[in-house]
Amino acid sequence: MPMTPRAGLEVDDSLAAFIETEVLPDLDLDTDRFWSGAADVFARFAPENRRLLAIRDDLQARIDAWHAERRGRPYDVPAAASFLREIGYLADEPAPFVIGTRNVDAEVATLAGPQLVVPGLNARFVLNAANARWGSLYDALYGTDALGDLPAAGDYNPERGARVVARAKAFLDQAVPLAEGSWADFDDPSNGIAMRDPGQYVGRSEKSRLFRHNGLHIEVVFDPAHPIGRTDPAGISDVILEAALSTIVDLEDSVAAVDAADKTAAYRNWLGLMKGDLAETFTKGGERLTRTLAPDRTFTASDGSTVVLPGRSLLFVRNVGHLMTTPAVRLPDGSEAPEGILDAIVTSLIACHDLKRQGRFTNSRTGSIYIVKPKMHGPKECAFTDALFDAVEDLLALPRHTIKVGVMDEERRTSANLAACIHAVRDRIVFINTGFLDRTGDEIHTAMQAGPVVRKGDIKSSDWIAAYEARNVAIGLQCGLSGKAQIGKGMWAAPDRMAEMLDQKAAHPKTGANTAWVPSPTAATLHALHYHQTDVFALRDAIAARPVPGLEALLTPPLASGRNWSELEIAEELDNNAQGLLGYVVRWIDQGVGCSKVPDIHDIGLMEDRATLRISSQHMTNWLLHGVCTPEQVDAALLRMAAKVDAQNAADPLYRSMAPDPANSLAFQAARALVFDGVSQPNGYTEPLLHAFRRRAKGEA
Ligand SMILES: CC(=O)SCCNC(=O)CCNC(=O)[C@H](O)C(C)(C)COP(=O)(O)OP(=O)(O)OC[C@H]1O[C@@H](n2cnc3c(N)ncnc32)[C@H](O)[C@@H]1OP(=O)(O)O
Ligand SMILES: O=CC(=O)O
Ligand SMILES: [Mg+2]
User: Fold this and answer.
1) Which of 100-114, 182-196, 476-490 has the lowest mean pLDDT?
2) Would you tell me which CATH number, out of the four given (2.170.170.11, 2.40.30.20, 3.30.420.310, 2.30.180.10), belongs to the domain 136-242?
3) Percent of the chain that is helix, strand, coil (3-state, to 5)
4) Which of 31, 493, 612, 614 is least surrounded, with the fewest CB atoms within 10 Å of its CB?
5) What is the pLDDT of residues 4-13, one digit of tens each?
6) What is the DSSP letter of 132?
7) What angle do CA 145, 150, 153 make, to 5 degrees?
8) How far is residue 159 from each of residues 165, 172, 230, 238, 591, measured CA to CA in Å?
9) Residue 434: which of 456, 418, 452, 450 has the closest Cα?
10) What does the pLDDT look like over 644-698, one tens digit per residue?
11) Which of 431, 113, 108 is nearest to 244 (CA)?
């Protein structure tokens, strides 16, 4: 890649051109001053970044040795806790405190609703996600299995339509009941709509009436000329829900960004969002479509005043963690720059377009930049992020704490020191959430030498995970996040299983969490129903009154008590992991797709990203290390599943088969390395191998 010198750095030409011609011009920032400031940030923070990574390795090496010495004995949690304290893995608890974050948008601070995550490299999806603030309940119920079955292919089915309408009206009866009777019988909107609580009425537009319940808006559309409205006694053609209050544009685990071209493409999408001019043209159903950002929505209140509501989700950007470096920028010593530092600088710089109100729309009405920081291990790494964001604010002449941070509680050292982690970013924190997928991968890797772990499906019901979830909310409330920041729950990783999601994710708001992740706009619309069923903020006092669960269960790894698996169970477990792993990795390496839906062994399409890959690869590594299976069994499973994954992708013209020549398939070799070299991967992360193989694949292409 041609590089260009800038203030002692070597910057990839395409990235430098992007920053200098597309980002900087409207920002009143001098190009030379920007680059010398950026070089200074790298000079100050890169050495500390490296030091923090060395601490991770050192702690893991000590934990490995401690576990190896005690292997085969019952796990002694008090001894483990004192050992972890002795080596500095467990930090001192801070004195009681409350966070001081200010200027936080209501979507984050005072409202409760779904949070959508979207791979930042896919402009079509990114636009869809930003617009997922509002979603059709009729479409979400009709087009998914939410009602218990899927629609048949072909034309609109009126019988299914009637079930959808009945379900939606039952929801209206629960959330915004009429003064008398049911919405199902309502037939005349012309004289106004008498509500049981008239305060729920917000306003009207030409065709709709807008209501509010538990802080979320519900729009009932009246259109007797519409094919659905025509068959409705009141002419109701749809119920539109306020759905994804916030969206995370992901530059991390759901993208494959391994070089300057990838990074620049992702940054360009973020710029399009911040300037409001992102557009994507594509063909769908034989039609050529151009998708752009949705405008705000305007209604007229009873007193004639205008009510303007955001048309788009409040946007966060997820930077990468502290681990990886990028060839997009080289430091004066020739080494690759830490990617997380580059992300902090560039994504904040781009967000200045929003702060300066130079775009078509406003993202943060309170003048904040929202960055999600994943995969931090413990309070010192959080403090590092805090200091880095201070430095970026100085570089961009932003007031202190303009850059907010969402802390993913997804590494064991963060869960175990959560209060201290929050304390380290106490004036800029806007969320904690349980990224249970990475967290599970880290659990397996941390306990790698202790013994074989239980089957992957059983990890979900182990004690540490319940303690982790409960402690996250309890500590968040104790540190005063309520009203200032989100307490969030993790991803629903089965995008096609909406009935099951409706059943299971109802539990999230009941825990006191005011948001939870969903994989798609449709899932956001359906998950919004849960925040109408439960008033999260009303529950929090009672939840906060409970004692914070101690560390005992959190520090108990999910080790198998015996090795009672049959050969069949072992083969099934290996096949399941191998199928998910290969199905994901093959698209990552060969096509640069960072998030895929991959069928598991029961043919359920699961969302796979780097976090789920970390689990499946580390699980196989763990069983291999402890002799639950042999290398031959692992290879046989990989080969068997390669053929299966090849068959699943047969219709994709860009797909390169693995099974016919696995030795020459970079994807197959990457997948194999993730398992066979899994013990030595830092904290069990998959990025180092994925990046190395993807760069080779790009080189070959
Ligand atoms: C552990 C973690 O880190 S979780 C966070 C990372 N994970 C994510 O971000 C999940 C993002 N989700 C996705 O990428 C997808 O939903 C997948 C890959 C899981 C499943 O995709 P599929 O069901 O195959 O979706 P498919 O490609 O059929 O698209 C269906 C429609 O949904 C939309 N869609 C699907 N997911 C999203 C999304 N997250 N955001 C916006 N739109 C989406 C698409 O735009 C498409 O609509 P369009 O044709 O009008 O553009
Ligand atoms: O990032 C989310 C996770 O579960 O990991
Ligand atoms: Mg994660």
Assistant:
1) 182-196
2) 2.170.170.11
3) 50, 15, 35
4) 31
5) 999 999 999 9
6) G
7) 150
8) 10, 20, 15, 16, 42
9) 418
10) 999 999 999 999 999 999 999 999 999 999 999 999 999 999 999 999 999 999 9
11) 113
pLDDT (0 to 100) of residue 422: 99
List the domain boundaries for the chain: 81-132+245-545, 136-242, 567-700
**Res. 465: pLDDT tops 90:** yes
How far is the CA of 370 from the CAs of 247, 359, 406, 442, 665, in angstroms? Answer: 10, 17, 7, 25, 40
CB 114, CB 524: distance < 8 Å: yes
pLDDT for 1 beyond 80: no
Same fold, 81-132+245-545 and 136-242: no
Q: Residue 81: helix, strand or coil by DSSP? A: helix
What is the length of the chain? 701
Please tell me the predicted confidence (pLDDT) of residue 207: 96
Residue 195 has pLDDT above 80, yes or no: yes
Helix (H/G/I), strand (E/B), else coil: 39 = helix
437 lines ligand 2 (CB under 6 A): yes
Beta strands in 501-651 (DSSP E): 515-518, 596-599, 605-608
Q: Helix axis angle, 436-446 relative to 31-70, nearest 10°?
A: 50
Query: Which CATH number is correct for 567-700, 2.60.40.420, 1.10.3210.10, 2.102.10.10, 1.20.1220.12?
Result: 1.20.1220.12
Query: With contact defined as beta carbons under 8 Å apart, do 72 and 43 qualify?
Result: no
Given a contact cutoff of 8 angstroms between Cβ atoms, the answer to whether 327 and 260 are in contact is yes
Q: Which of 118, 319, 372, 437 to mutate to test the pocket of ligand 2 (most atoms within 8 A of CB)?
A: 437
**Is 408's C-beta closer than 6 angstroms to any atom of ligand 2?**
yes
The CA-atom distances, in angstroms, between 396 and each of 7, 174, 278, 543, 551 are 17, 48, 23, 40, 41
At 601 the pLDDT is: 87
Q: Are 274 and 349 in contact (CB under 8 A)?
A: no
The predicted model scores a pTM of 0.98
From the candidates 609, 610, 646, 672, give the one annotated as an active-site residue: 609
> Measured from the CB, is residue 117 less than 6 Å from ligand 2?
no
Distance 384 CA to ligand 3 centre (A): 19
Euclidean distance between CA atoms 394 and 363, whole angstroms: 22
3-state class (DSSP) for residue 318:
strand
| CA angle, residues 459, 460, 465, in degrees to nearest 5 | 90
Tokens at residue 512, please? 């006191």
Residue 186: CB partners within 8 Å, gap ≥ 6?
Answer: 178, 193, 233, 234
318 annotated active-site: yes
Residue with tokens 């941070």: 405
Is 640 annotated as catalytic? no
Portion of the chain with pLDDT greater than 90, in percent: 97
Q: Which amino acid is at 217?
A: H
In this structure, what token pair is assigned to residue 163? 């079930």
Q: What is the pLDDT of residue 300?
A: 98
- Output the pLDDT for position 599: 92
Q: What is the mean pLDDT of residues 259-265?
A: 98
CA-based max dimension of the chain: 79
Task: Judge whether residue 701 has pLDDT over 80.
Answer: no
Q: Give the residue from 402, 491, 373, 376 showing the smallest Cα distance to 56.
A: 376
* pLDDT at residue 479, as a whole number: 98
Helix (H, G, I), strand (E, B) or coil at 512: coil
Mean residue pLDDT across the chain: 97
The CB of 477 under 6 Å from ligand 2? The reply is: no
Q: DSSP label at 562? A: S
Distance 30 CA to ligand 1 centre (A): 38
pLDDT bin (cut points 50, 70, 90) of residue 315 is very high
What is the rounded average pLDDT of the residues 632-637?
98
Banded pLDDT at 320 (limits 50, 70, 90)? very high
- In CATH terms, the fold of domain 81-132+245-545 is TIM Barrel (3.20.20)
